[in-house]
Amino acid sequence: MTGPLTLDFVAGRTVAVLGLGKSGLATARALAANGAQVWPWDDDEAARDTAADAGFEPVDLATADLGQAAMLVLSPGIPLTHPQPHPVVTAARSVGVEIVGDVELLRRARPQATAVGVTGTNGKSTTTALLGHILHAAGRRCAVGGNLGTPALALDALDADGIYVLELSSYQLDLLSEATFNVAVLLNITPDHLDRHGGMDGYVAAKRRIFRGMGPEATAVVGVDDAPSRTLLASLDGPRGVPISAEGPVAGGVYAADGWIVDDMDGGAERIARLADAPALPGVHNAQNAAAATAAARALGLAASEIAPALGSFPGLAHRQERIATLAGVSFVNDSKATNADATARALACYDAVYWIAGGLPKAGGIASLAPLFPRIRHAYLIGEAAEAFAATLDGKVAHTLCGDLKTAVARAASDAEPGTVVLLSPACASWDQFKSFEARGDAFRAHVLGLAVRNAPEARA
Question: Which structural domain, as residue segments, surrounds residue 175?
């Protein structure tokens, strides 16, 4: 079966929806299509106007009688617990209203379908898309979305022969109550979103929720290249644990070694794919992503012979080390998705000579952790609110220029870069000081680079 989801359990019931961005609006549409009375609200007037244009009459949940609602569906961006719960969340709890997210509703609607959840501080988008690519290439029926791309409740209905591959942020995991996964993937855990989880312990606890309720027939694929993830894997009680690593052999797991992805899930340490044959998966971090997707695909019953060619044909994702152009021998790479220092470290490690564009809305910890990679940076071009703080960290170690905005940074980097080097946008920051999203920031970078290409074309110079 394919087509719109059926949510029989909401028919005739009142459901409040808080947050009317991409996932919230998709949720409102799905609920209304299944006979629910929807109370949609967003604190942002523009989002309410968009919902009104889509045919929804906003209901101010701050003054509504939430006791009449069967549930509150919360968009992931709305604080559930920290730094403090949204007032509507507090009000809903006070009258015993269930609070869920859209992924929870998807699993309640299609429990017969197989579900794979993918989380981790870094790499989850690439791993999700890569697993979906492998499954499609092998002829499996699947739908890919969640935090990546298509919202959960806008995905097609799948039956027992279908597979949902869902990217899950820590915010989305906090909103799960009954939903479980047949295969759950945890790539890594490094500090991120600590304000939203009350510290590192809360963040780790949120990631751990992906394994909640898994039994011995389920599979937990866990990266073991960081201490928090190793500890979590060792503490799991229930699912089969499959370790993955980008740093070397792990018994009973899948790992990268000597340029190969090696499958030891059934013993035998079989080399199944050469990483050099997967041009869209550069660097150690993508070796981990490839190992994770391979382990998940194997847990879903695919053979190595089905997985290897799909690793090589994977086209990659926009904004994740996306090669935009090569101009006068200089490669321009869009890694706008790198919103923290750990993600940027993975990108910098891929290149020997980098003209680095960084900055934006800073995250805790700054870029001090990148010091071992500073020798790879020829020059840094700093933008956004973090520019001065980043400059202080780089002072005396890396040549840098305060550029203010992205257009200026691209122009300066293009002017300075030498053939054989890379101009890398890998901000180590959120985008919201100057852009509405990391996608918008990456799109702007692409436009600026392609603008350079047009201006530098022979006919443009004639």
Answer: 103-313
